[in-house]
Amino acid sequence: MSAVSPNQAQDLAWLLRGLSDEVPVIRGSVLLSSDGLLKAAHGFDRASAEQLSALASGFFSIARSTGMKFDDSNEVRQVVAELKSSQLFISWAGFNSVLAVLARADADPSVVGFEMARLIKAVRPFLHTAARSAATVPGDRNRMP
């Protein structure tokens, strides 16, 4: 379960909209839990935002696994993918949270990365996602008491 109430989710969408206002080359952004659940979005319809959340979670997870294997750390600062007409930036945004930003191909990566980091630093406590408890199935032997 997310630590974000519906009103906070609207506030978070407003923050993402502010990021796009600061950096006009941003096409859209999503804030997601580290396991891929959409928390807030700006610039995408719901289906596209959910799909980008799932994809960003996968990229972020692969980067964490790579770090654990080759860098002795699971800390990921940023993942960047250059696509044909876009750039995708994925950053850790707080406990169990990730920020993904899709920008135009002509975006300056240092500007996008800087503004993402500035937003995250300014509002990090509000971006945290509470850990979910394990779901239980009736009759499941592994069920928590």
Write a structural description.
The protein has 145 residues and is an alpha+beta fold. It has a single domain, classed as Dynein light chain 2a, cytoplasmic (Beta-Lactamase), CATH 3.30.450. The protein is 42% helix and 24% strand. The protein is built from 3 helices and 5 strands; from the N terminus they run αββαβββα. The protein has helices spanning 6-22, 46-70, 109-127, and strands spanning 26-33, 38-42, 78-82, 86-94, 97-104. Strands 2-1-5-4-3 form a 5-stranded antiparallel beta sheet, sandwiched between helices. The longest helix has 25 residues, at 46-70. It starts with 5 loop residues before the first helix and ends in an 18-residue tail after the last helix.
